[in-house]
């Protein structure tokens, strides 16, 4: 498990379209996932301790961001052949257990993760209503363990600002987590 940090936000980069199967049996596109004020694209998985540490807070923040017109989508791009905990069936179990309030999609080819430049789980891409990148930072100060309950909600505050102004904060702290588990090409 390689620990990686996300690169700095490349403000204004357009969101990349996708068409991926969801655990709900539907195929989802970028357009179907977006909210009136923006979209949070999250590369997450089931086995990563960094994702597990934030699941409860992630669900809370995504629910609250919907009230501000920001919708979210979770994309799992790891190779389940090497990481069985990240299988499609386990994606369903995790989403149900955690109450994911967003589509949870499987990027079997890993093409979407590559096109976005995702490097780790979790990796957050926050877009404004024009689908221009405004946030590429962390959820909060959590690492392999959840941060204190009074920790600053970096992602929530940033995306709330995006909903109100169309622009993310200039100062962003990178997300960190396990490397994406790439398949040999």
UniProtKB/TrEMBL annotation:
<dbReference type="InterPro" id="IPR013766">
    <property type="entry name" value="Thioredoxin_domain"/>
</dbReference>
<dbReference type="InterPro" id="IPR036249">
    <property type="entry name" value="Thioredoxin-like_sf"/>
</dbReference>
<dbReference type="GO" id="GO:0016209">
    <property type="term" value="F:antioxidant activity"/>
</dbReference>
<dbReference type="InterPro" id="IPR000866">
    <property type="entry name" value="AhpC/TSA"/>
</dbReference>
<dbReference type="Pfam" id="PF00578">
    <property type="entry name" value="AhpC-TSA"/>
</dbReference>
<protein>
    <submittedName>
        <fullName>AhpC/TSA family protein</fullName>
    </submittedName>
</protein>
<feature type="domain" description="Thioredoxin">
    <location>
        <begin position="9"/>
        <end position="144"/>
    </location>
</feature>
<dbReference type="InterPro" id="IPR047262">
    <property type="entry name" value="PRX-like1"/>
</dbReference>
<dbReference type="GO" id="GO:0016491">
    <property type="term" value="F:oxidoreductase activity"/>
</dbReference>
């Amino acid at each position: 498990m390689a620990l990686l940090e996300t690169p700095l936000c490349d403000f204004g980069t357009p969101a990349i379209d996708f068409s991926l199967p969801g655990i709900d049996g539907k195929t989802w596109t970028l357009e179907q996932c977006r909210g009136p004020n923006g979209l949070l694209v999250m590369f997450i998985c089931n086995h990563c301790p960094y994702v597990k540490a934030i699941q409860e807070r992630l669900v809370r923040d995504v629910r609250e961001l919907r009230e501000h017109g920001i919708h979210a989508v979770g994309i799992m791009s790891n190779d389940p052949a090497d990481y069985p905990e990240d299988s499609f069936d386990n994606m369903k179990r995790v989403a149900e257990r955690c109450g994911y309030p967003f589509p949870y999609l499987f990027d079997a080819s890993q093409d979407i993760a590559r096109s976005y430049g995702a490097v780790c789980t979790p990796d957050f891409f926050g877009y404004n209503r024009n689908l221009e990148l405004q946030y590429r930072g962390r959820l909060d100060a959590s690492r392999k363990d959840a941060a204190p309950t009074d920790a600053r909600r970096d992602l929530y505050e940033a995306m709330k600002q995006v909903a109100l102004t169309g622009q993310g904060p200039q100062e962003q702290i990178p997300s960190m987590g396990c490397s994406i588990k790439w398949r040999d090409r």
